[in-house]
Records
---
Amino acid sequence: MKKKQFVVKYSLLILLIFLFASCKKDTADENEKFPNKNKEWVTGTWKQTDLVISVDVKIGGQKVPAGTSMIALAPLIGQALGNPAIADAILCTQDNIYSFKADGTYEITGCTDLILPVAGNSGTWDLTIYDAVLELISTKGEKDPHWINSITSNTLNLALTVEFPGLGAAPLGLILEKQP
């Protein structure tokens, strides 16, 4: 009787190992069939089209709705805070060019001091957390992760948290358009 139970248990164990090994192979095959679409879409050259507020905020006592362009608001923000340098730092980003290369490196041409102070102008990049986060790693090795709010073959919207002197941290959306 014990010998029969042993044979049944042993047979079940072999069957489970076989099934597990088969499933693992299928997963690997699926990964080869369906390459990472987000990584393909991120790779390339992008131009910044806007920097928008992600939530409703009050600036200088005025309610500003989510989706409002920081580029358009920059002069008002500088005036409300009595600091024109903030307006200049925002406006400086409007022509930024982002290049995400297939070899995993990136270069940003333009101003990054305000919106991407950790990432800087160059380093490496990768997608993490189920390809929902674009992680920039500076040349100093500092990680700067940003949630991908939305992505298509020609638009990329990244979540940023930007620290504005005299205003505090603000959640923003960095809107990029793919260049030919």
---
Amino acid sequence: MDTTTAMVGGSVLALFGGVLLLWCAAEVSLRLRVRRRGVSAVATVMAEDDVHGQLDSAPLLSFSVPPSVGGPGACGIAGLVIARPRGHTPLRRPDRFAPGASVRIFYDPQRPGRVVLAAGEAGRSAVVDLLWSALGVGCLAVGTGLVAAAGG
């Protein structure tokens, strides 16, 4: 392999792997923080009129928040929040997320649109998080190896 190609390819792979690892760590940290410090609620899965929304595996959820939610400057009026949960969702939307179904969630009281499914509702998110992390580590290792081989 040409030295320039190995350096560029290795740099791109290493950069991709590093960014993927940082994204995985930030996303897992956010979901854990919202589950620990967030407010528990029950949301209702909404029916979607948009064709693209129907193809999204993350269900559209609606739930109400009390007037005190929203942080400094909040208007003090109870409201209805419509959001999609963060984190792992399967390729196809499971039957338990049919329109009208109730789902246990946690939301961030400072940003009510930041929603995660409760641990029992999330499914096998740890396995998927590990797979994405393994992909990131693999890309980082191969990229670093290519750069080291081309440089030495």
---
Amino acid sequence: MNNSRGVSLLEIVIAAFILAIAFIPILRMVDFGSVATAKVGHYAKATRLAQELIEECKHVPFKVYQRHYSALASGDSFTVHPQFYKETAKSIEAFFEENKDTMKDYGCNANLKAKKNDLEQIVEVWFEVEIFWREMGKKDDERFGRRIVRAGNSYYNAEAM
């Protein structure tokens, strides 16, 4: 009688199959983690860019806005002209360019609106920025996969009473 203590080929194939099935959830978890990390990175970068845009606009003298937007005192909302955030506009374009393989339907909207005091003087200008995109591979339905970052801040007119 031959007492062989070796492992048959069939046992090795079954063990390899069981290990392969056990590793599928682990590999999917790693893939999900990398996708989630990329999404969080996009949100963080877009938020930083929105804040940079507002800060760059706040460094423009208040009188320049009053000259450029003649109806600023009306209380209406106006689109901020890119001349007021040239450097940040370049950074936003670079952000979308470096992520063009993972993003589509992207863009940036920046608006400003004046607030007046009781004397009808403009006391501050509110900036509102929205950076948006959709992830590649998502359905064409606008509600599905759309990512939006919004930021806002005010610019106080020190010359108002």
---
Amino acid sequence: MELLGLILLVIFSAVTLLAALEAITLLFPDQITRVRQTLEASLARSFLLGLVNLIFFSAIILVLIWLTEQTGPVVSSLAAAGALLILVGLVGLLFIGLCALTSLVGQRMETGKPPLQAQRRGGLLLILVGLAPFIGWFLFTPLILSAGLGAAIQTMLQRRPKERISPDNA
């Protein structure tokens, strides 16, 4: 009976993750498009940037969690709030990067499909590969998480050219 519960948990988690990726894409289409363009232009750089940032911020979060156990109530509360803030920021950037990655994979799978349907197929493919024992868990999932995070950070740090206001539009 516990095995059935675990299987249902995995299925429902995959479905809700897919729904979250689609909802984020619908809410932030311009940002997802820019992150996707960054992924298309420099996938290896995005992966390395994401890996370095994932390791760095994970270490900071662990140190802040350690501080919550070692210090008084005031410093402990501040450290916990800092760790939570960093974690929320990382998860937000991860989701934006994953949305762009699923969109990219979906469009490469089926060029004639509508964007949301292509993203759904790309997201389903990435989720299923991530569920594969050992290779999916320990190789593929960290790879796509690092690439997505790196692309989101890289896009966030890019300077956008300022639009000039012409005298005719003023």
